[in-house]
Amino acid sequence: MSLIIKNLHAETDGTEILKGLDLEIPRGEVHAIMGPNGSGKSTLAKVIAGHEDYTVTEGSVTMDGVDLSGLEVDERARAGLFLAFQYPAEVPGVSMANFLRAARQARLPEGEEIDAVAYYKELYEKMDLLGIDRKFTSRSVNEGFSGGEKKRNEVLQMMMLEPVYCVMDETDSGLDIDALKVVAEGVNAMRSPERGFLVITHYQRLLNYIEPDHVHVLAGGRIVRSGGKELAHELEAKGYDFLKEGELAPA
Ligand code: ADP
Ligand code: MG
Predict the structure, then answer these.
(1) What is the mean pLDDT of residues 105-133?
(2) 180 falls within a domain
């Protein structure tokens, strides 16, 4: 049971961004992807989620054996995929409580209704854990939220939807150290043998709190190196410039 990415090529506006990317995330594992700006990290996240701006020209993404190419964005979500965006969209006019409730409802079988009392109890517990004030339930999704508030909100959605595979795109950016710890605690609480994580980050710092099983370096649209968590420390120490000097030959 894995999320398997094979020889993935994807383009947008006629420009190829992912150039033969291979990655396998078994349930139960946390994989981190690090890489310089513009290397294709967000593109990978959005292609996995089925974003309409990107076209897969070669290769495949399968989730527990299901080829995702035939599934729309919402079908992928119902199948257990979740993407926490690097730049979460604002949804004016839709309150957080209604948004989360609708997302939860959409995952239930036809004709089954959410238990409102249990839903709010769980929502408040998770908001408390993430340090999100309860007044946020009535605010429009992400509208006027600070960068850090948006990121916490992404994690709240992830916790409420209980996905099988979680893709987190730079959820650490915009968070101060206290918020980072809180968010990491939320993620760690979700770690389970039944769930896989792809954690995209620019900085090693996050990985002190969310300990990855594997670390991969993405550069030029491909995974150029994979290793354990020590690879993140090596990148932090050397910076990404050394990628350009050819020290990291494609594996
Ligand atoms: P990262 O997240 O690693 O910083 P991205 O995946 O956001 O990198 O971007 C990789 C490259 O693809 C960049 O050069 C970026 O400008 C380009 N790109 C990404 N999305 C689009 C798009 N929708 N339209 C045009 N270019 C894009
Ligand atoms: Mg990005």
Answers:
(1) 92
(2) yes
Q: Ligand 2 centre from 112 Cα, in Å? A: 37
Domain of 189: which CATH number?
Answer: 3.40.50.300
In the numeric block, the tokens 């006629």 are attached to 14
Asked whether residue 145 is domain-assigned, the answer is no
User: Which of helix, strand or coil describes residue 2?
Assistant: strand
> Each residue of 7-33: pLDDT tens digit?
999 999 999 999 999 999 999 999 999
CA pseudo-torsion sign 13, 17, 20, 21? negative
> What pLDDT was estimated at residue 236?
86
**Is residue 138 a part of any domain in this protein?**
no
Q: Is residue 195 part of a domain?
A: yes
Domain total in the chain:
1
Q: What phi and psi, each to the nearest 5 degrees, are found at residue 144?
A: 70, 10
> 17 CB less than 6 Å from ligand 1?
yes
Ligand 1 pocket test: which of 18, 34, 42 has the largest number of ligand atoms within 8 Å of its C-beta? 42
